[in-house]
């Protein structure tokens, strides 16, 4: 028979083994405090602001790119149209040139503006090629005028670059209907009636029929197109 102390130790061990085990208590999850949430809110605010700024910058860039593309397309289309008009003019067997000189005549020894007015007498479009004209400030342009009796109609405006210029002149009637053309300096955008000083003029009665050499000369005076 076991000793009393041994018996008590065995009973205690069995009792301990048979006792139900206690499950671990879950760790309570607590919401972050207001102080802890502030940095998160700040980071979210600045991230949203940066994204909005980037989106706005991309939108502005896209609009600018579209406008630039539209502008370049318009320039290319105008250049193509101008050269198609020039080809038609050069191929016209009736093409003639009229001398255009400085008006008033310059003093001796001073550089003089000069050029030619190229047109087919029965056409309503001509080409003015001028040299020796001074460049104008941004708020002024040169304007072409066509004289028919007492009437003076605008043939369009043009700019000068390094003293040289060429422009198409659009008339309301065939060129033979006009007796004279002249050029004035007018405000930017042009004028409805000549108000500035004359700088060039030429009569449209004595035409010289353009030969092959003349046509080559005209072509050489025009700026090259890419």
- Low-pLDDT runs of 5+ residues are 74-78
CATH class of the largest domain: Mainly Beta
- End-to-end Cα distance, whole Å, is 121 Å
Strand count: 9
Instruction: Write down the Rg.
Output: 44 Å
* Percent range for β-strand residues: 25-35%
Q: How many discrete structural domains?
A: 2
Summarize the biggest pleated sheet: 9 strands, antiparallel
Helix and strand succession? HHEEEEEEEEEH
CATH architecture of the largest domain: Sandwich
**Tally of DSSP helical segments:** 3
CATH fold-type name of the largest domain: Immunoglobulin-like
Q: Write down the overall mean pLDDT.
A: 77
Approximately how much helix is present in the residues?
Answer: 25-40%
Structural class: alpha+beta
- Shape field: elongated
Q: Overview of this structure, please?
A:
- By secondary structure, this protein is α+β, with helices and mostly antiparallel strands.
- It folds into two domains: 46-91; 94-221, Immunoglobulin-like (Sandwich), CATH 2.60.40.
- It has three helices and nine strands; from the N terminus they run ααβββββββββα.
- Strands 1, 2, 3, 4, 5, 6, 7, 8 and 9 form a nine-stranded antiparallel β-sheet that branches.
């Amino acid at each position: 028979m076991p000793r009393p102390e041994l018996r008590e130790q065995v009973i205690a061990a069995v009792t301990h083994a048979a006792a139900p085990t206690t499950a671990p208590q879950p760790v309570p999850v607590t919401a972050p405090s207001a102080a802890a949430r502030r940095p998160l809110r700040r980071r979210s605010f600045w991230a949203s602001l940066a994204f909005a700024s980037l989106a706005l910058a991309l939108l502005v860039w896209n609009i600018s790119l579209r406008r630039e593309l539209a502008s370049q397309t318009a320039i290319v289309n105008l250049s193509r149209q101008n050269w198609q008009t020039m080809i038609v003019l050069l191929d016209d067997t009736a093409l003639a040139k009229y001398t255009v000189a400085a008006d008033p005549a310059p003093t001796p020894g001073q550089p003089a503006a000069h050029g030619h007015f190229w047109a087919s007498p029965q056409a309503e479009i001509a080409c003015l090629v001028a040299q020796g004209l001074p460049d104008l400030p941004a708020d002024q342009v040169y304007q072409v005028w066509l004289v028919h009796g007492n009437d003076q109609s605008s043939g369009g405006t043009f700019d000068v670059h390094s003293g040289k210029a060429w422009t198409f002149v659009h008339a309301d009637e065939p060129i033979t209907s006009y007796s004279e053309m002249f050029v004035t300096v007018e405000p930017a955008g042009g004028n409805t009636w000549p108000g500035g000083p004359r700088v060039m003029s030429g009569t449209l009665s004595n035409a010289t029929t353009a030969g092959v050499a003349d046509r080559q000369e005209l072509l050489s005076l025009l700026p090259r197109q890419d």
